[in-house]
Amino acid sequence: MSEKNNQANPEKPGAMNGALSGGISAAFGRDGAAEKVRENFRQMVAGDAAPGEWAYSWRRELNRGGFRAVDFLMEEVVNSGKCIGCASCVTICPTDVFDYRQETPVDTRTDACVQCVLCTEVCPILRPADQDMDALVQYGDNPLDEGYGPYVYGLYTRSTDQEILARCQDGGLVSTLLTFGLANGSLKGAVIGDVLPDDNQIGRHILAKTREDVLQSAASRYTYSPNNLALADAMGTDVNPIAVVGVPCQINGLRYQQNSAISQSMVKWLRKNVALVIGLFCSEAFTHESLDKLAEIIGTERRKIRNINIKGKVVVRLDDGEVREASLKKYREFARPACLYCTDYSAELADIGAGGIGLDGWTYTLVRTKRGHEALRAAIEAGLLETRPLSDEPRGEFLMKKLSADKKKNRPHPAQMPTYQERAAQAYLDPKTYYTKGPGAQKAEPDNE
Ligand SMILES: Cc1cc2nc3c(=O)[nH]c(=O)nc-3n(C[C@H](O)[C@H](O)[C@H](O)COP(=O)(O)OP(=O)(O)OC[C@H]3O[C@@H](n4cnc5c(N)ncnc54)[C@H](O)[C@@H]3O)c2cc1C
Ligand code: SF4
Ligand code: SF4
């Protein structure tokens, strides 16, 4: 997979996929079997079939000899504007059918498709996780469940490493676990998000192998960074074991790849070599054009924006250290429309979740699995992290419950949601309020009474 194909395009705003604008059936229709699968799939989604059965629409066809799944995926997910950009289909494809541009896969080499159906199998937009996903994730003993996925305990953490503290977004938990893992040999690499050399608010993927790589990529970019593309670099060069850091859609994409019912060498590699999965809490990501808008709102030039942090409001640090603030309500106009198709705030399939809610300057840390617990405990015992109980700032837990519930509110599965084109026709693209204040809420009301 060539590097040039997989850079996010900094010139185009994310999520307004080029693919939406036309050519919907250009590739589609060349494989009649793919069209038949789509018809079956749509019937199952609209009918009485349980969501857990939807995958049989394509697995059945695979058993009958296969079909060109890329055509189905492009039509049902990408051209409908439902693709969240997790890049799972891109990294799992054994014959490099896809490029990745403007936050979506592009089916550049359809003739190379070997009809393995893996791209469809690993797409989180098409179906809920299989029931055996819990066995793959291996949650800790007697996990709690309060509406944001199983976890064993939560706490606030802060790095004791001054270099990390000077660069990180909140308490530096993420960079501390990664640098510690690389230093003690439990990790050889980490799939994380870096920035473009000429624009520090536009993310791109990187396979970090050194402390310096981790440090230069610390802190958050609120535009979409396709971290999972670096999985291909890790597999291609057999760097292992690795950690993976990502927002929930990316963690889901990774887990769907690891748990694929259709097994192949890359699936096995991911199962064996991903040692730690760190999920970043996420309400939404923003389009590239949002950066120009934000600069305009706070009366500065975009190139002067050094860091953005969202704390109920948008807190912007400029390159001279000055801090300015903007209304989140205003900025949210520029949330990625594709984020509607995401119901996971806290990365429910990660080993550890990390967010900035609650105590300022600390990372809200949610430990879900034994692996997560062991990585955290080792860093604490090495004196690299200090901790405080969540009760020191109860607002953190309050926000965790609220923001997770908001994201799940009234929503059906993404496969049952309206397409981008249908939402555009309703003139309502805000992903966060579509099902609370927008057209989705109106529809959901009778069911809730
Ligand atoms: C798009 C986005 C939305 C978020 N929304 C929320 C939210 O609603 N509520 C909340 O509590 N927290 C949110 N977070 C998480 C928060 O910003 C911090 O990442 C988290 O608190 C960890 O802080 P830290 O200091 O421990 O991490 P650090 O040590 O600073 O490490 C941060 C890591 O995030 C990676 N990263 C940076 N930008 C991106 C990106 N765009 N995509 C993927 N990886 C990236 C970096 O490579 C780095 O490894 C969001 C993060 C992102 C990227
Ligand atoms: S797997 Fe991810 S990138 Fe591929 S089509 Fe589905 S949502 Fe989009
Ligand atoms: S809201 Fe969901 S889809 Fe959007 S960036 Fe965050 S995790 Fe991904």
Q: How much is the radius of gyration in Å?
A: 21 Å
Shape: globular
Number of domains: 3
Low-confidence stretches: 1-29, 444-449
Précis, in short:
With 449 residues, the protein is of the alpha+beta class. It is built from 19 helices and 13 strands.
Set out the fold topology.
Blueprint: H1 24-27, H2 32-46, H3 56-63, H4 69-78, H5 88-92, E1 99-101, E2 104-106, H6 118-121, H7 133-137, E3 153-159, H8 162-167, H9 173-184, E4 189-196, E5 199-208, H10 211-216, H11 230-237, E6 242-246, H12 248-258, H13 265-273, E7 274-280, H14 289-298, E8 305-310, E9 314-318, E10 323-326, H15 328-331, E11 352-355, E12 363-367, H16 370-381, E13 385-388, H17 395-408, H18 420-425, H19 439-448
Parallel strand pairs: 4-6, 6-7, 7-11
Antiparallel strand pairs: 1-2, 3-12, 3-13, 4-5, 8-9, 9-10, 11-12
Helix pairs in contact: 2-3, 2-4
The chain binds flavin-adenine dinucleotide and iron/sulfur cluster (2 copies).
Residues 84, 224, 247-249, 282, 284-285, 336, 339, 342 line the site of one iron/sulfur cluster.
